[in-house]
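Objective 1b: paired records.
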Amino acid sequence: MDDSATAVVKLETQQGNVALVTINRPEARNAVNGAVAVALEAILKQTERDADVWTVVLTGAGGKVFCAGADLKEVAQGRIQSLMTPDGGFAGFVHAKRTKPWIAAVEGMALAGGCELALACDLIVATEGGAFGLPEVMRGLMASAGGLYRLPRALPRGVALDLILTAERLPAERAAALGMVSRLAPAGRAVETALQLARAINQNAPLAVRESLAIARRAYDLTDAELRQLSEEGQDRLQRTEDLLEGARAFVEKRAPVWKGR
């Protein structure tokens, strides 16, 4: 994948089994066009295949707007379908199948589809002074890329419905207080904080993290009995891994474990 300065989405490998993915259209407030959708989907699939990538951070270039959502120039010209892919949905991402943790590093604003991108990630890091919003109804649209059901899961119902119906913005500080944002960072330090969070995750066994994440992602969708069965199946898979033995040995030997991801 092209990681040059001209790429609409950049992929950079970071220390500690972390990948940093950057939507690189700061002149358009990192709005999603067809090229972004295709590139982001390709990068997502690439990180899924890469055994050396355990956790991914998603951000936007420019330091002011994470992503302003759909490129309305594309929408106005009747090309709204180009902003979606068959496998990933909007931006090639919001409905994509993935096993690894993704962290949204939201510097500044995450609006419309940009807010939906953040909600599609597993964790959100946001900066003081930033904000989230779903203003689609102001343009005759709806937040159909997951926002209408992910926001009420991330926030109290009344707060979520208020935002959806009024198109008003939610300050990052309040989003953090209500639990939607995992970590609040000073302005300018969203990526730094998200990378620190990713490395904290990666201190743990990667297969155990993925199996745990798979269950947690479905906690709102399945019954306790179904979740219990999936948990037992996941635990059975982990019991056959080298990393489980390594974790036990490291504890007995009073040393840090060396994970292999197998």
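Objective 1b, second protein:
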Amino acid sequence: MGIKSRKPTTPTQRFTKLLDFKELEPKNKKPEKSLTVPLKKKGGRNVHGHVTARHRGGGHKRKYRIIDFKRDKSDMPAKIISIEYDPNRSANIALLEYKDGERRYIVCPLDLKVEDTVISGDRCEMKTGNSMPLSSISPGIPIHNIELNPGGGAKIARGAGTAATIMAHEGNFAHIKMPSGEIRLIRKQCRATIGQIGNINHERQSLGKAGRSRYKGRRPKVRGVAMNPVDHPLGGGEGKSSGGRHPSTPWGKPTKGFKTRRKKKYSDKYIMKRRPSKKKRRK
């Protein structure tokens, strides 16, 4: 989808840049009723009522669209009926109709259009939207919706504009270059979908006003340095002061560069190369 700017009749509109939704077809289509479930707001709280994600609450009412991340309906072609907006994710979704009449949602890849046909199987054409095991995909082809465990459903490369790449095949594993730049070993039996996820302009949006963040369920954030010492480790001090210590959370856990990954994690043996640091990425 492209980005649209408005003629600024108010100060807010001067900085607003939003998606134009031209890719959605047909326009203003309601979601498939059989594939939606109610979505209860949690306000960032867990089952015990404790806040685990701060600055969450409010927002527009939503319904959750059930997405087929497993693509386990093998060797049956499906036609794209519509491409729709999903308020629960950054990417658009596509509604499939299989030959037997069953309908399912998938995350919509780039350049996939209404009336196109996709299929899932062990050996099928290497075409955008088709799903197959990593062992059947040639190196150098962009992929998304990658499983970490065979049959467990897609876990990697599911956001708008993301794609991973197969670098090589070795033994029972494929070398996958993640969107972050990390190179990881994943079993060849795991499935992936060909192509890059669409809606690549999602990150170029500028909401323009605080109210639009509230629509999305995001509440205001207050900087730690603006608080009192009783509320945050960085609070207090004469003038602008950062507390004279390394940046941290309100509970004292270091942030901004402090490595929080466990030193001995079971998945370390599957990581061939770590993602580059932020400093290297900027260069």
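The longest helix spans residues 210-215. The first strand starts at residue 3 and ends at 5.
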